[in-house]
């Protein structure tokens, strides 16, 4: 039951789904439309034909905040790009205080850690 999907058919179908969504009862949350594509006879580890990035028209989360947990080199690089950064010494100042650790985790949407620091984070911060 598989067939080739043309670009026009894809756009028409997604437009139909969006118009149906707008005509029905309004929800009090943002609804998402998901598209799943299966490629037959394609081995992603062997074939690298489809590598690349896609820039979305609408940003999924406009105020996405990231904090870098790293050594001095990574923290200096992050601060040069106006990204908040914390070193191991800054993390040790939290003293495994659950309230401070939880406050830190709620303050940012994501954390990026250096390979040296990532092994030490559970020991330094403790359980949440």
Automatic annotation (TrEMBL):
Pfam families per record: Ribosomal_L1
GO-annotated cellular components: ribonucleoprotein complex; ribosome
Gene Ontology MF terms: RNA binding
Entry-linked CDD domains: Ribosomal_L1 (cd00403)
Sorted UniProt keywords: Ribonucleoprotein, Ribosomal protein
InterPro entries: eL8/uL1-like, Ribosomal_uL1-like, Ribosomal_uL1/biogenesis, Ribosomal_uL1_3-a/b-sand
Family: Belongs to the universal ribosomal protein uL1 family.
Matches recorded under PANTHER family: RIBOSOMAL PROTEIN L7AE FAMILY MEMBER
Protein name in the entry: Ribosomal protein L10a
Origin species: Rotaria magnacalcarata
Lineage: Eukaryota, Metazoa, Spiralia, Gnathifera, Rotifera
């Amino acid at each position: 039951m598989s067939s080739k999907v043309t670009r026009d058919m894809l756009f028409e179908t997604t437009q139909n789904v969006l118009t149906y969504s707008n005509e029905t009862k309004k929800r009090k949350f943002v609804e998402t439309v998901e598209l799943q594509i299966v490629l037959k006879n394609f081995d992603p580890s062997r074939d690298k034909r489809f590598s690349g990035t896609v820039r979305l028209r609408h940003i999924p989360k406009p105020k996405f905040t990231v904090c870098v947990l790293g050594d001095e080199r990574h923290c200096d690089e992050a601060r040069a790009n106006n990204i908040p950064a914390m070193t191991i010494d800054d993390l040790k100042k939290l003293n495994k205080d659950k309230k401070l650790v939880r406050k830190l985790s709620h303050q940012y949407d994501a954390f990026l850690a250096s390979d040296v620091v990532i092994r030490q984070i559970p020991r330094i911060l403790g359980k949440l």
